Amino acid sequence: MSNIILFLGIMLMYSTPLALAAEGSVISERCGVVNIGIEGMMTIGAFVGAAVGYFSGSAWLGFLCAGIAGGLFGLLHAAASVSGKADQTVSGIAINLIGPGLALFLSRRLFAGATQTQPVTNKIPKLFPSGLPGIWSNLNVDMTTVIALVIAVAMWFIFYKTTWGLHIRAVGEHPGAADTLGINVYKVRYICVIISGVLSGFGGAAVTLAIVTQFSPTAIAGQGFIAIAAVIFGKWTPQGGYLACLLFGAAQALTVLLGGGSFAVPAEILSMLPYVLTIIILILFVGKSAAPKASGVPYEKGAR
Amino acid sequence: MESKTKAFFKKPIMLTVIAIVLGFITAMIIMAAAGYPPFESIGTLLYGMLGSPKKILNVFIKSTPIIFTGVGVAFAIKTGLFNIGAEGQFIMGSIGAVLTGILVKAPAVIEIPLIILAGAAAGALYGGIVGLLKARFGINEVITSIMLNWIALYFSNWIVGRPQFAGLGSSSQKIAESGYTTILDNWKRTAGMEGLMKTLLGRAFLKTDVNVGFIVAVIAAIFISWLLFKTRKGFELRAVGFNKDAAKFTGINVNRQIVQAMLISGALCGIGAAFYITGQWPHAISSLSNFEGYGLNGLSVAFIAMSSPIGCIFAGLLFGGLLYGGSTLQLTMGVPTEIINIIIGVIVFFCALTYILPKLIDKIGTTKKGGAANV
Predict the structure, then answer these.
(1) Under an 8 A CB cutoff, do B342 and A109 touch?
(2) Which SS3 state, helix, strand or coil, does residue A52 take?
(3) Which residues from chain B sit within 8 angstroms of residue A286, using beta carbons?
(4) CB contact under 8 A, B150 and A102
(5) Residue B16: which residues within 8 A CB-CB, separation 6 or more?
(6) How many A×B Cβ pairs under 8 Å?
(7) pLDDT at residue B365 in the model
(8) Which of B118, B172, B177, B357 has the CA that lies 20 to 30 A from B254?
(9) Number of neighbouring beta carbons within 10 Å of residue B214
(10) Do A108 and B142 touch (CB under 8 A)?
(11) Do A86 and B356 touch (CB under 8 A)?
């Protein structure tokens, strides 16, 4: 019993940053803009969150600023891919270079040459600040975990129950038709890609303000890419992406629990487990996944 | 006259040059804002890249692995595949090369080809998995590549930790010395060399890991270019990349092309890794906490080169040079080396804007004309 609760707790902890970034990836992909720059946006969010959290003493202010920083990078990506008609993959890779580059550059400038920030004094609070009794304390998740769930549900609602969501999906599937119906394709894409950056920034801050208390060069280490993989895995839906992140978190939790047990499995082999599992599940269950039709294609008025 | 100037600036190569200039300008603005003297810093960076024969040689040495991965990624792009798995293929190539170099002790004529082959085979197989999963199950190559990159990283750490392969610190054993592709390496230890060490060129050649890797990288780039644009095989591969359905309609076996393309792309990354192991200190693999970026930097190289295999030679030299010069910049000016990633990122960013840049140039031209008319 206590093992199951511990498992669930670790699963939720690991999946939170991924889920936030994955929702960011979903909204960008569904409006027709490939955003492979999630990793870079998460990294800048992780740094800004930790730095602002350290200097201001307020974790929530850090979290908010992380979202703004991610959003600015979203704006950069939108400017390139919507107005600039850029190759979106290339622009995303550029952001993956600029984001971590700027984060480490600023870290060295502000923290006396160190590539990691000083630890924040106040973390993001837990769901029950007064704590839970006994083994249940493992399920006292960070508030960021709750936020991630709320955002995933909200995204599902917006996508499938509101006109706004219909517009986003239309723009991602057939921008030409959406334009004919009076939807401003450029505006929808700008807003979606900026939100994508904000959510990725939140995801980064969820690492450096809740799971650990500081930014370091390996704080994000590929989580942005895993979030993208989760979205492809979840067939480009908000709920699918969220569940895929939970599954990945579960695999990580399994790794932690098995590592602590009496099994004689080397740590490095255990660490491969989440990635191997993902590939096996893809082979067995997922098969061909269909990306939004206009994903990656710049829209130009009048083009067929 | 003016249209000629415009046409000149709209050439693809000029667009790349403009992107590079903009990259440097952005870096200077950032450095100025952070309180570093921008002109002096850029000067130091350039000195760090080109200031002496030794520095220039080191630029060639540093750029060799990313030229290989860049060519591998560019080749995949031409065939319609986004090989973000170059990183994992490079790691697997390193493992193949190091294991062969540790286990086999043979004369150089056998040892070196064996190590390179092992690296190529390991990289190719790892790339082939991605191709096979895409062709057979329709799984997006990006997702499998990302997962396989991590699996390769942990596998590499596992190998380093095995008692039979472990060396000093957190590294594996070195490969057999007969497997080194450094030239002049044995000369360094010869007694009469002190005199030569005192000359500028002598220092350059004897104090660096000069190796044959760069020459092979250039040959590989030319070969891939020939394969893609001058052979039937290359035509089929490009046809699949250009329009999968049309290629299928003309009777091309699309799935086979995908697997073959990934095998070749992976092999290039693996060969790059093998020459890195045989040509550069420490001739071993180390335990990694994060990716070293040889494959991921290859993506940037391929993009700056606009997916041209030949262009990757120059883009790789630029990237390798900036990375190497960045250490001088940090040492003398205190500017964090991460400024290099920002420069490269901005260059790649503007390379993505090849569609809009020509139009902007047109616009600038017209405004000038309008201004002249007013006078």
Answers:
(1) no
(2) helix
(3) 139
(4) no
(5) B304, B306, B351
(6) 153
(7) 65
(8) B118
(9) 24
(10) no
(11) yes
- The predicted pLDDT at position A147 comes to 96
Q: How many CB atoms lie within 10 A of CB B240?
A: 26
Sole residue written with tokens 């990633």: B341
Mean pLDDT of A34-60: 95
Best A47, A252, A275, A300 residue to mutate vs chain B (most B CBs within 10 Å): A275
Nearest Cα of chain A lies from the Cα of B152 at a distance, in angstroms, of 9
Distance from A269 to chain B by nearest Cα, in Å? 7
Neighbours of B249 (CB within 10 A): 9
Cα–Cα distance, B255 to B257 (Å, whole number): 5
Are the beta carbons of A275 and B147 closer than 8 angstroms? yes
Write out chain A residues lying below 8 Å of B139, CB-based.
282-283, 286-289
Which two structure tokens, joined as six digits, stand for A123? 């973390």
Who's near B213: CB < 8 A, 6+ residues apart? B61, B64, B65, B181, B272, B275, B276, B278, B279
Residues A101/A233, Cβ–Cβ less than 8 Å: no
Question: In percent, how much of chain B has pLDDT > 90?
Answer: 62
In this complex, do A222 and B146 lie within 8 Å of one another by their Cβ atoms?
yes
Residue scoring higher pLDDT (A136 or B345)? B345
Burial class (CB in 10 A: 0-12, 13-18, 19+), A290: exposed
- Least confident window among A70-79, A279-288, B183-192, B236-245: B183-192
pTM (global) more than 0.90:
no
Domains in chain B, CATH or no CATH each: 1-36+336-375 (no CATH), 55-334 (1.10.3470)
pLDDT value of position A264: 66
C-alpha triplet A298, A168, A227: angle, nearest 5°: 80
Residue B253 has pLDDT above 80, yes or no: yes
Q: What number of other Cβ atoms are within 10 A of residue B212's Cβ?
A: 15
> What ipTM does the predicted assembly reach?
0.89
Asked if the Cβ–Cβ distance from B150 to A91 is below 8 Å, we say no
CA A279 from centroid of its chain's CA atoms: 20
- A243 sits in the region (left: phi over 0; alpha: psi -120 to 50; else beta) called alpha
Q: In chain B, whose CA is at the least distance from the CA of A290? A: B140
pLDDT at A13: 93
Q: What's the pLDDT at A23?
A: 97
Q: What token pair was written down for A232?
A: 């492809």
Contact B348 A93 (CB under 8 A): yes
| Facing residue for B290 by CB, picked from A102, A221, A286 | A221
Residue range B53-89, pLDDT digits in tens: 889 999 999 999 999 999 999 999 999 999 999 999 9
| Amino acid making up residue A80 | A
pLDDT for B288 beyond 90: no
pLDDT for B187 equals 54
